[in-house]
Write a structure and sequence with these properties.
The protein is of the alpha/beta class. The chain contains 12 helices and 11 strands.
Length: 301
């Protein structure tokens, strides 16, 4: 693996890997930390509705019965079990969280982990989750913007005041502040339409593309550079976390060796880190350690 790419592992396939012993994920986190994995990512769904056929990115990869850990809670446990790897959400459906609570929870986790949190956010795709949470699905993008701006204000100022269509407050002390200067880094898991480009330029520390092909990444990075330049913002230090380009072997299972061969092209296209889905490459709990050890060797850890 090229040294230019940081190594990330996304938690997936929990029911197949751990069955009813989900706390065993902490053993995986300790192992990943010891082996030099740079980041562990936890995805998000508060609940699943029946209509997974509406998933906009192809066939939904997991059954309705799959357990989904609440990401910030899970990352708090992982923080206590690890020393150095970064803790990330990918993606947290931010509009489903009240901004004040999200700001407090994220800041607390950042402080207690020693400044290791990356907040990957998006709006999701299931209307059922929004209805159950009492949040208007049609307002998801507005609430994403307002909520993240409110978090930034609470992380930056004490007392903090903020005004928007969906959240407002005056002179609040919301402490502790995040340990990381400027607040918790916000990564966007969104397409790059004009509105999302503006959101990323204003608030983003990184981008998580759904299409992890090198050409899509190269095109997206070029658009981001142009948007940053127009806004007078320096692009240096901005992150791009790509999914590992899944390659299937003759047995129709993911072929890790052939997948690893595609990583230099991602780095050349502008990716700064690459994420491997744990459940895609490890079919059982016994395969977790060999998978992580192979990644570590490929990354020169």
């Amino acid at each position: 693996m090229t040294a230019r790419l940081a190594l990330s592992v996304t938690v997936s396939g929990l029911s197949r890997l751990y069955g009813g012993e989900l706390a065993a994920l902490l053993e995986t986190a300790r192992l990943a930390d010891d082996l030099g994995v740079d980041q562990l990512v936890v995805p998000d769904h508060l609940a699943m509705g029946r209509r997974i056929d509406r998933y906009p990115y192809g066939r939904f990869p997991l059954p309705l019965e799959e357990p989904w850990l609440e990401p910030l809670t899970a990352l708090a446990a992982i923080a206590g079990a690890t020393r150095r790897l970064r803790l990330a959400t990918g993606v947290l459906i931010a509009p489903l969280r009240a901004p004040l609570l999200l700001a407090k929870t994220a800041a607390t986790l950042d402080v207690l982990s020693g400044g290791r949190l990356d907040l990957g956010v998006g709006v999701g795709w299931q209307e059922e989750e929004y209805l159950a949470a009492g949040v208007p699905f049609a307002e998801r993008w507005l609430r994403l913007e307002d909520g993240l701006r409110a978090c930034r204000a609470l992380w930056r100022e004490a007392p903090a005041s903020f005004r928007s269509k969906t959240v407002s407050f005056d002179e609040l002390w919301c402490l502790p502040r995040p340990l990381q200067p400027g607040g918790v880094p916000i990564w966007f898991g969104v397409g790059l339409g004009p509105k999302n480009l503006a959101r990323i330029v204003e608030l983003g520390a990184g981008w998580m593309p759904m299409d992890a092909g090198p050409e899509a990444i190269r095109s997206g990075v070029a658009r981001l550079r142009e948007a940053f330049a127009r806004a007078g913002r320096d692009f240096a230090g901005f992150g791009v976390r790509a999914h590992a380009p899944l390659v299937l072997g003759a047995d129709r299972r993911p072929d890790l060796e052939r997948t690893l061969e595609g990583l230099p092209a991602l780095a050349e296209a502008g990716a700064t880190s690459v994420s491997f889905a744990l459940g895609a490459f490890a079919a059982s709990r016994a395969e977790v350690r060999p998978f992580l050890e192979r990644l570590a060797r490929a990354a020169g850890r």
